[in-house]
């Protein structure tokens, strides 16, 4: 049995690549399934500002 990746044969390298690929697919699949079901449709919300007003903390006269 060889304990070094540098001197491993071609079959061992292939097994490592296949296991890593399957693990990556499983992690990506779980990430996709774990997200909440959010509606990503795009709708426009129009904001119409009201009347302009000035807010102060003093009773002084405001001149514009």
3D structure, described in words:
This protein is an all-alpha fold. The chain has a domain at 1-39. 39% of the residues lie in helices and 0% in strands. It contains 1 helix and no strands. It has one helix at residues 10-34. The longest helix has 25 residues, at 10-34. The model has no long low-confidence stretch (mean pLDDT 81).
Q: Can you summarize this structure?
A:
The chain contains 1 helix and no strands.
Shape: elongated
User: What percentage of the residues does DSSP assign to strands (E)?
Assistant: under 5%
- The sequence of SSEs as H and E is H
Please count the beta strands (DSSP E, at least 2 residues each).
0
Separation, N- and C-terminal Cα atoms: 88 Å
Bin the helical content.
25-40%
Look at the structure and give the mean pLDDT: 81
> Uncertain regions: pLDDT < 50 for 5+ in a row?
none
Number of helices: 1
Mind telling me the C-alpha Rg? 32 Å
- The secondary structure category is mainly alpha
In terms of quaternary structure, the protein is: single chain
Sheet with most strands: none
